[in-house]
Write a structure and sequence with these properties.
Length: about 450
């Protein structure tokens, strides 16, 4: 009976609008499936589907290769369809229910179109991304190839860029570094790539954010020879430590580099008693905040393997070598002359002994926690900076559910840190940077 009453109140115009609303609902369902399905397919996956002989594979590959060509037109079409159907729904509801028709239309529109045109199709596309992408690829390619639609979407984006200057939105979408790392982790979990490949890719991605200060050999650890030493004495230092280049210093300034091969030549020529400055060569200086990627490129282009790192005041902060740059990418490189020492040792009782010079980010990755690294680069720096004074052995701070205690302290320098789980926190995987306890073990 209610249906008969509604039919009696509907005119020819209302029936046409209902048909239009139904068509728009179908279009919106299709576009929701296309939007979610295409966004979840990578270019390698699309290539694989094409190789498998899927008829829509070619269209799918075109879309995912240039996502900026379909994202904005599809979103514009969705917006147009939603606006038109909302208007038509309001008009029909107003004709049927009078003054309260607008409210009824809004409620029906939200319930029906959210469920049927948003939640259901997008959930389907999430559960079956390949099927959704292949199903919608060719119609979507035809839609975004429509010149008028493409022209309007580009015009609106250009207008937006005029109002809000910034990165060209027409070039979107953009993938953040964290999202890219997430893709790599997912590929490793699915056995698409090996764990070593994942680590290498992650190192390359993070390489661009690393600066010289983070990988340098700090000034206290530098092996140097004084300017008043002879060639023979400098050669003894080089042989003892197994280095091919030794900085020549005067007080706190580096005057040059003594190459071991030059020292050997001078020694064999009978000039072992000459000053080391007679064979020293010029040295490169770089600021401590210089990106490692740029340092490495300059080393390749200008053919030098060692640079002295200076801080903002011009004082010597440390040195960085080409090997240090490569190790940031591929991990530690140990040869037969290196004295390899454990930077991270897991003890039987569950504690860890960590070299004070270990970077905060590396330890965060190993413990799977989040430690603050804005104000310091090393674990020793974290303990020293948090306490605000030179610690005594056993003095500790707490961060993210873990206790960091100064294990070995030489002078003003923390050589080794003991890392242990806080006894009152059973779950170390939940970071809590608000914890900042300071204590001295009895």
């Amino acid at each position: 009976m209610i249906a008969a009453l509604l039919a009696a109140q509907l005119g020819g115009g209302d029936i046409a609008m209902l048909l239009a609303i139904f068509v728009l609902l179908i279009v919106l369902i299709f576009l929701s499936v296309a939007e979610m399905g295409l966004s979840r397919i990578s270019k390698p996956k699309a290539s694989a589907l094409l190789d498998q002989g899927h008829r829509s594979g070619k269209a799918l590959l075109k879309l995912v290769t240039h996502p900026e060509r379909w994202v904005n037109p599809v979103l514009l079409t969705i917006n147009i369809c939603q606006t038109v159907q909302a208007t038509l729904t309001g008009l029909v509801a107003g004709n049927l229910f009078g003054g309260v028709g607008v409210a009824v239309g809004v409620v029906l529109n939200v319930i029906v179109f959210f469920v049927l045109a948003e939640a259901v199709p997008k959930t389907y596309a999430v559960l079956h991304p390949e099927r959704a992408a292949l199903l919608t690829a060719r119609p979507t390619l035809a839609l975004v190839s429509f010149p008028v639609l493409t022209l309007i979407s580009r015009g609106l984006i250009s207008f937006t860029n005029v109002i809000f200057p910034g990165p060209g939105l027409e070039k979107g979408p953009f993938v953040s570094e964290q999202e890219l790392l997430g893709f790599v982790d997912a590929a490793a979990e699915d056995d698409v790539i090996e764990e070593r490949e994942r680590q290498l890719i992650a190192s390359v991605i993070e390489f661009g954010d690393t600066v010289a200060r983070e990988i340098m050999v700090p000034r206290p650890d530098m092996v140097t020879v004084s300017v008043d030493r002879s060639v023979s004495q400098a050669l003894d230092v080089a042989i003892e430590h197994g280095y091919s280049r030794i900085p020549v210093i005067s007080v706190e300034d580096v005057l040059g580099l003594a190459y071991t091969k030059d020292l050997i030549k001078a020694e064999r020529a009978g000039n072992g008693g000459d000053s080391v400055t007679t064979v020293s060569r010029s040295v490169e200086f770089i600021p401590e905040n210089k990106p490692v990627a740029q340092v490495m490129r300059e080393m390749q282009e200008r053919k030098f393997h060692l640079a002295i790192v200076a801080d903002e005041y011009g004082a010597i902060a440390g040195l960085v070598t080409l090997e240090d740059c490569l190790e940031e990418l591929v991990g530690d490189i140990v040869d037969e002359y290196d004295n390899e020492s454990a930077e991270f040792e897991h003890l039987p009782n569950g504690d860890y002994l960590v070299d004070g010079a270990m970077s905060v980010s590396d330890l965060s990755d190993l413990l799977e926690i989040r430690l603050p690294d804005e104000d310091w680069d090393t674990i020793a720096g974290l303990v020293f900076g948090t306490l605000g004074h030179v610690p005594l052995p056993g003095e500790s701070v707490s961060r993210s559910g873990w206790r960091f205690a100064a294990e070995i302290v030489h002078g003003r320098r923390i050589r080794q840190v003991r890392v242990s789980l806080e006894p009152d926190l059973g779950d170390a995987g939940e970071p809590n940077d608000d914890i900042d306890d300071r204590s001295v073990d009895a």
